[in-house]
Structure formats: C-alpha cells, structure tokens
C-alpha cells in the first residue's frame, strides 16, 4: 500500500511546506515501512528510530517558527562507512564493531544543517569492497524486487532502503560503481559526482583516488536536490574542489534539444550484455533521439582494460588505507598471545572478512619491491589512457550514455565463490570512476522477471548540471522510476 | 602468473594478516587467477604516458597556521580496546 514513505523528497517537501503533513508523521510512516519490510530486506545495520523521531519533532517546531532549510524534516539513511557522531559506524566490518565516531563527516554535517532526519546506518559490503552486499560482516541485504537476488553493492543497504520505502533518500559511496550499480539493480536513481565535488572528510577510506560519496533517490530531481546540499569545498578535505555549487534543481527542465549524446560502442559489443539490457538501452536511445538529442556513436578504446586497472589501483590504495585497523585505536582487539605484531596480525586475520583480506593481499603484493612498476605504475599509466578516452569523447559530444550494468540483479550466492566473475559485473561503472567524471544511473526498464535495468549517463568533469538535465529529460519521458517493488 | 605458497605467506606477513593453511591455499589460487587477468595490461603501449596518481589538476591547498577545533580526547580514547591515563595501551613489542 502506498503511503507517505513512498513520496519523493520534493513531493514530501511540498506537503511539509503547505502543512498538509508533519515531519513527525512522515518519519513515522517510514519507520512503519521499516517495521513491515525490514525482516525480509535487511537494509539497515543500525536504525535510530528514537533519534529520528526526535529530529523530526524538532524539524516541525523549526518549520512552525519560520525556519527554511533544503531538507527540513526529510528522513535520510546513511551508508555505514560515513562517520556519524554518536551512532555506531562499522563499515560493515567486524573489526570496527562498537566504533562510535566522535565527529560527523562533512556530508552528515551538511545534511543536518539542511534539516534532514538521519534514520540510521545501512548495510554494505565490508569496507565497500563488493558488488552484491554479500561481503557484509553482518548478513546479506535482499533485493526488494526479488528477495532471492542481490541488491547490488557495495551501497546495497542504501539502495534497497530507498527502493522499498525505508528511507526517502540515502547516501552511498562509489569507488568503482557502488552507488550506480545498486541503484540500477534496485530500480532507483544513483549519482556519482565528479572526483572532488563532495567532501570525503569522515568517509572511511577504501581507495582514496577513487572514493566518492553520492546520493541514492527515487528520481533525478531528488538527486539534484541532495547534490546541492552535499557539494562544495571543505577545508578538511584537500581533494575537494573549490568550484562554486550551483542550485542543481534549477534549469532541470530545459530539455535536451540539440544535445549531442555519445554512444560508446565499446559498451555494447561482447561485454556479456543480457538481451533485456540491450533492448532497454535501444529503447532509451530512441527516446532520447525523439526528445531532440543528436546521437553519435564513438569509441572508448581502453574500456576493456578498466577492470584490471581498477583492481590493481584500488587494492594498492586499500592495502595502505586499511593498515590503520590494527586493534589499537578503535574496534576490536584479538590478542590471544604474544607481541604487538602478533596482536596486529591476529586482530586483522580474524576481524577482517575474506574479500577485504584478498584485496589487501593483492594490493600488498603489487606495491611490494619488484612488482611496483609492473603492476601499480603500469595500471596508473593505463588509467591516464582511460581518462584520455573520455577527454577525446567529450570533444565530440556533451554527454555519454550506455548501460549501467551488463545484467540485471544476479542471484544471491551466484558469484560469491568466484571473485573475478564478481569483478566483471563492474565493467561499465569502473571506467568513468577511473576518469573522475560525474555519472549516474536512472531506471530504464525491466527484464522478463520484473528486475529493473539501469541507464548510465556520463558528463565531463564538474558538469553535473548538464548530466542531471539529460537524465531528467529522459526520466520525464519514460517514468520507469514510478514503479515500486511489491514484496512477496 | 602463479604465486607460490612461500610468496603468499610472505605477502600475508607484510600485510600483518594471520591466516590459516586453508586461507593461504585459497588466496594462492585466487590471487594467481586475478594477476593472470591483470597481465592483459602488459599489452597496452604506455611508453610516453604519465602515470595518473590523482585524476584532477593537482594544486596545493594551504590554510592559515592557526589552531582550529579538534576532537575531544575522552570521546576519542573511548573507542580504544584498551586505554589508560589518556594513552592507548598495546602489548609488549618483544616476547
């Protein structure tokens, strides 16, 4: 049954501003949905129902006193790798069990300053390493469209929550596709901004040259709204860019007549694309053409090297970033016997999960003496070539469009024993992440089993406004985002 | 690119990971397979290409050298498995 929990953020804001509903009622409706569906979906690791209702009541008072804020009273979920003061933050890992951040991430501070209600922390692949949320240390999340399928990952909890009405919007993080791929699998919108657009202060690092925070929402306008709140320079994150932040919700509806849209042929052929995904893409392209866009086929010739490049660079960075989890300053300690060094190894050996250890091992190897140039530096050089592919493409076109993923949501357990097969799911989301460009997934249809398909839009660096405008025009013509899952 | 058992044990030592035999054997096979896949990069010509350490234009970010807000000490130490007298406590360095 459709309730307030199914509203988009902008619809809810209209009702709140006209006093037709209160933030307290809205948050109650979302918590009722959580109570009805969470035992089957398991989107949350830590739900702060009491805190959320208190924040909602405060938002109602503030609205009555005339305060205006971009997200006043809107219930938002947060991925568990983003620091929330006073709320346990584990990154989906046993090694961080019990960790209570003494500070808020800048993204959380922005949400709170805008009046958002923080609902709690969502499930994820441990340290954001995975494409299915099966690598969580705290159990799997189920795809609301089919409970036997994965929700995607690593921001699977956030995507499932937004999809099923357990939050109006959510924060995720995207290193190689972890916002866009779960958005595609769960039939919602997921935006990865340009590298440096949103501060990462307080985001627990996986691969620092790639990690980005991004919103997961039910439509493009909500993504624009959240991006306007989250973006901007931060003295605490020196990789954050100082470019001014436009109001991304303005000018969304100016249309795409005359927009040059590039179709990378390397995203079409021989990449294991399911027929249903190919069909949805074909229909989407026809739709964009009908809206007045000019379609241009072009090449991104280094696409095929994206996954290998990514897994060498991201694991190298992870092996150093995750050295800090050593049983000294936070999380658990396992010291059955012996010295400091033995304590490190025991804590990490037992506290970290299989995939995280696999990636730390790979990164340690490629950074070690004798292999550094052959693997790590080589991958960085190929990354330059991948970025050049995009630079050259954007000399010809304004936007690129392709599938977000080659397949719809796969079955739970299908790839868990074959890590390489799991990595290949990220073939289309990784290259734009390596290039640092903004990109987003928008629903573009369903396969025969009723599983959602995602369409990926990509734009030049810092051109989020252009990206959102194109995605908005497409969404308005098709309305695939209006369908919601029915749990059974 | 097959990794030997000794190499996998050495990587685990460098990474400070205590792993049992079954895990070492599993990682030996899986890492070898992933590295095999990564050898495809060796076919890409990169002679005159600079490595991309970071993806956007590099620039120094400076700030005034004045103290700013810092984390509260007790709240920070509270997360430590063992602390005493405002210090983190660790096992002995030597047996």
Strand order of the largest sheet of chain A: 1-3-2-4-6-5-10-11-9-7-8
CATH class of the domain at 1-39 in chain B: Mainly Alpha
Oligomer: heterodimer
How much strand content do the residues of chain B show? under 5%
The global form of chain A is globular
Rounded to the nearest angstrom, the radius of gyration of chain B is 23 Å
What is the CATH topology of the domain at 1-39 in chain B? Histone, subunit A
How large is the count of helical segments of chain A?
15
Averaged pLDDT of chain A: 96
H/E topology pattern of chain B = HHHEE
CATH architecture of chain A: Alpha-Beta Complex
Please trace the helix and strand order of chain A, writing H or E for each element: HHEHEHEHEHEEHEHEHHHHEHHEEH
Measured by residues with Cβ under 8 Å of the partner chain's Cβ, the largest interface is: A-B, 73 and 51 residues
Radius of gyration of chain A: 21 Å
The count of strands of chain A amounts to 11
Q: Can you tell me the CATH class of chain A?
A: Alpha Beta
Rounded mean pLDDT of chain B is 92
The strand count of chain B comes to 2
Major sheet size, sense and barrel closure of chain A: 11 strands, mixed
Can you tell me about this structure?
The complex is a heterodimer of chains A (488) and B (95). With 488 residues, chain A is an alpha/beta fold. Chain A has a single domain (4-259, 397-482), classed as Amidase signature (AS) domain (Amidase signature (AS) enzymes, Alpha-Beta Complex). Chain A is built from 15 helices and eleven strands. Chain A has helices at residues 9-17, 23-41, 49-64, 106-113, 156-164, 180-186, 220-230, 275-290, 306-321, 340-351, 354-367, 372-396, 419-424, 430-435, 464-478; strands at residues 44-47, 75-79, 117-122, 169-174, 189-192, 212-217, 260-264, 294-298, 399-403, 439-446, 452-458. In chain A, strands 1-3-2-4-6-5-10-11-9-7-8 form an eleven-stranded mixed sheet, sandwiched between helices. Chain A is globular and about 65 Å long. The model of chain A has no long low-confidence stretch (mean pLDDT 96). Chain B has 95 residues and is mainly alpha-helical. Chain B has a domain at 1-39: Orthogonal Bundle (Histone, subunit A). Helices cover 35% and strands 4% of the residues of chain B. Chain B contains three helices and two strands; from the N terminus they run H-H-H-E-E. Chain B has a two-stranded antiparallel ribbon. Classes of the chains: A alpha/beta (488), B mainly alpha (95).
């Amino acid at each position: 049954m459709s309730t307030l929990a199914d509203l988009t953020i902008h619809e809810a804001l209209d009702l709140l501003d006209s006093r037709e509903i209160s933030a307290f009622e809205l948050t109650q409706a979302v918590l009722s949905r959580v109570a009805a569906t969470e035992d089957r979906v398991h989107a949350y690791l830590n739900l702060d129902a009491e805190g959320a209702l208190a924040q909602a009541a405060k938002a109602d008072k503030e609205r009555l006193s005339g305060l205006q804020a971009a997200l006043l009273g809107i219930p938002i979920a947060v991925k568990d790798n983003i620091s929330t003061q006073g709320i346990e933050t584990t990154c989906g890992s046993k090694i961080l069990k019990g960790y209570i951040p003494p500070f808020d991430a800048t993204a959380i501070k922005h949400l709170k300053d805008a009046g958002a209600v923080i609902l709690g922390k969502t499930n994820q692949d441990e340290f954001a390493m995975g494409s299915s949320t099966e690598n969580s240390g705290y159990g799997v999340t189920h795809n609301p469209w089919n409970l036997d399928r994965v929700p995607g990952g690593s921001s699977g909890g956030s995507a499932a929550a937004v999809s099923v009405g357990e939050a109006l919007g959510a924060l995720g993080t995207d290193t190689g596709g972890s916002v866009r791929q779960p958005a595609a699998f769960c039939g919602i919108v997921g935006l990865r901004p340009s590298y440096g657009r949103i501060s990462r202060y307080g985001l627990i690092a996986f691969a620092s040259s790639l990690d980005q925070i991004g919103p997961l929402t039910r439509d493009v306008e909500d993504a624009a709204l959240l991006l306007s709140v989250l973006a901007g320079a931060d003295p605490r994150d020196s990789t954050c860019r100082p470019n001014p932040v436009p109001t991304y919700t303005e000018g969304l509806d100016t249309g795409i007549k005359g927009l040059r849209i590039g179709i990378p042929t390397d995203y079409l052929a021989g990449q294991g694309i399911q027929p249903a995904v190919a069909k949805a893409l074909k229909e989407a392209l026809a739709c964009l053409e009908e809206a007045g866009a000019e379609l241009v086929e072009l090449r991104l010739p280094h696409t095929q090297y994206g996954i290998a490049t990514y897994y060498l660079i991201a694991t190298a960075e992870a092996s150093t970033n995750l050295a800090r989890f050593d049983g000294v300053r936070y999380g658990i300690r396992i010291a059955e016997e012996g010295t400091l060094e033995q304590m490190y190894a025991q804590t990490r050996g037992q506290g970290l999960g299989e995939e995280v250890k696999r990636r730390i091992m790979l990164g340690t190897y490629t950074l070690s003496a004798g292999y550094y140039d052959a693997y790590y530096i080589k991958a960085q050089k190929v990354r330059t070539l991948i970025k050049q592919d995009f630079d050259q493409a954007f000399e010809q076109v304004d936007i690129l469009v392709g599938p977000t993923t080659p397949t719809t949501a796969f079955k739970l357990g299908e790839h868990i024993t074959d890590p390489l097969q799991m990595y290949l799911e990220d073939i289309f989301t990784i290259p734009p992440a390596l290039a640092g460009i903004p990109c987003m997934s928008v629903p573009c249809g369903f396969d025969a089993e009723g599983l959602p398909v995602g369409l990926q839009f990509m734009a030049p660096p810092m051109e989020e406004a252009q990206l959102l405008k194109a995605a908005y025009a497409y969404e308005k013509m098709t309305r695939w985002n209006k369908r919601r899952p029915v749990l059974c | 690119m097959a990794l030997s058992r000794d190499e996998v044990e050495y990587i685990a030592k460098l990474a400070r990971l205590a792993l049992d035999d079954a895990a070492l054997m599993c990682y030996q096979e899986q890492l070898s397979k992933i590295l095999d896949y990564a050898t495809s990069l060796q076919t890409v010509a990169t002679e005159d290409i600079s490595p991309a350490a970071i993806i956007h234009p590099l620039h120094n970010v400076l700030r005034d050298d004045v103290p700013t807000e810092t984390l509260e000490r007790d709240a920070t130490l509270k997360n430590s498995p063992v602390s005493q007298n405002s210090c983190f406590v660790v096992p002995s360095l030597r047996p």
